[in-house]
Write a structure and sequence with these properties.
heterodimer, A: alpha/beta, Rossmann fold, five-stranded parallel β-sheet, 5 helices, about 45% helix, B: alpha/beta, 2 domains, three-stranded antiparallel β-sheet, 11 helices, 10 strands, globular
């Protein structure tokens, strides 16, 4: 079973994402901000991370940079999942090491197709 | 308790609409899909101030130029336009491999036909795939002809404009950045991509087929909606425009077997079909 870490400060979004991911046979863990997500990754590396941009404590972008710079060989696939849908944001995310990008709101088909594109579904 | 699904009663407005759809398109709206009639046509009824399907059918039956257009709109509303970018991506990769083999064997500009292209995601996916292959390996860009029975779907395909939901389905973010631009609330395919496609309205059952022969024809997720007789007719017509060595691509779960003797499974490209040797 593939694992996914859902990183979002909204409980509602985490709940929606968890529901979709579980129907796609993913084992799901959650984190409410980037700092907590780094801790979750240190405990157990997921296959893919669904990552919000704007969060308290540590943003998605800061988390991504920290993840990609870490020495632990942590290279899970990262799919940004955010309301920031401008081209400049998308470009910045890709340059920072994101593998895919989902613009909120999203549905099951969108998420499934993005997970297929990064090779985890 | 679930009630068993029932076909629209003979002579009812719903039955007349099912008959209209079948006559115009060859599509058979079976019992399991008949429920769509009401939901698909409700917006049209509201828009025209009609109170029921009976009134709609009466208006069409009254004849006249306007009513002929109304029948077209009814058919259009009932067609399933479900599609997405890079649908069954593995199949499109196989199409590219086959195309490269064809060009390696006899260098030329290939002709590809996306039959039943709906709102354009399939031909645009092909255009992206082949443009990227041209950049990588110098593969000549093929002529890509895209047709659909629905004027409404074709207008959207020509415009190449997609909502946020549509653009994200199946399309990688890198390809979206490379080939699309933001236009107000839509994502629009860049002109350089759209201009690589030739669009035309086409009823696969009755309109004259495009002229010339094609190297590859994609007709995916169409046969599944047709009656057995209509499937045979469409497959035989497509066989007539495939050049020797050409390939037909069907949707997952669709087959030529039992519907035509003009086409057989390809030995080289699993899941694709070629002309039968005579």
């Amino acid at each position: 079973m593939k694992s996914c870490l859902v990183v979002d400060d909204s409980k509602v979004i985490r709940k929606v994402a968890r529901h979709i991911l579980e129907t796609l046979q993913f084992e799901v863990r959650e984190a409410g901000d980037g700092r907590e997500a780094l801790d979750r990754c240190a405990e157990q590396q997921p296959d893919v991370i669904l990552l919000d941009w704007n969060m308290p404590v540590m943003s998605g972008m800061d988390f991504l940079r920290a993840l990609r710079q870490s020495d632990g060989g942590m290279h899970p696939k990262v799919v940004f999942c955010t309301t920031e849908n401008g081209m400049a944001y998308i470009r910045a995310a890709i340059e920072a090491g994101a593998d895919e990008y989902v613009m909120k709101p999203f549905d099951r088909e969108t998420l499934e197709s993005k997970l297929q594109i990064v090779g985890v579904a | 308790m679930n009630m068993p699904l029932q076909a629209p009663p003979l002579g009812s407005a719903a039955h007349k609409i099912v008959t209209l759809l079948e006559q115009r398109t060859g599509q058979h709206l079976d019992v399991g899909r008949a429920w769509r009639i009401d939901s698909a046509l409700q917006p049209m009824l509201r828009e025209r101030g009609l109170s029921s399907l009976d009134e709609l059918v009466a208006r069409i039956a009254a004849g006249g130029r306007c009513e002929e257009g109304l029948a077209d709109l009814v058919v259009d509303a009932l067609l399933n336009q479900e599609t997405s970018f890079f649908r069954d991506a593995g199949v499109l990769d196989l199409v590219l491999t086959a195309a490269m083999d064809m060009v390696a064997e006899a260098p030329r500009r290939l002709r590809i036909w996306s039959a039943a292209c709906s709102t354009g995601q399939e031909p645009l996916s092909l255009a992206m795939l082949f443009s990227e292959a041209q950049e990588r390996s110098g593969l000549p860009l093929p002529e890509i002809r895209a047709t659909d029975i629905s004027a409404r779907a074709l207008a959207r395909a020509r415009a190449g404009r997609y909502t946020q939901f549509e653009i994200q389905r199946g399309l990688s973010i890198r390809r979206m950045m490379a080939w699309f631009e933001v236009r107000e609330e839509y994502w629009e395919a860049k002109a350089e991509l759209r201009y690589r496609l030739l669009f035309a309205q086409q009823n696969l059952m009755s309109d004259p087929m495009p002229s010339g022969k094609f190297d590859i024809v994609l007709c995916r997720n169409v046969l599944m909606y047709l009656s057995p007789a209509a499937r045979s007719q469409v497959l035989n017509r497509i066989a007539g425009v495939l050049r020797p060595g050409g390939l037909l691509v069907l949707g997952a779960g669709e087959t030529v077997i039992g519907h035509t003797e003009a086409l057989v499974p390809s030995e080289c490209y699993r899941g694709l079909y070629r002309l039968a040797a005579h």
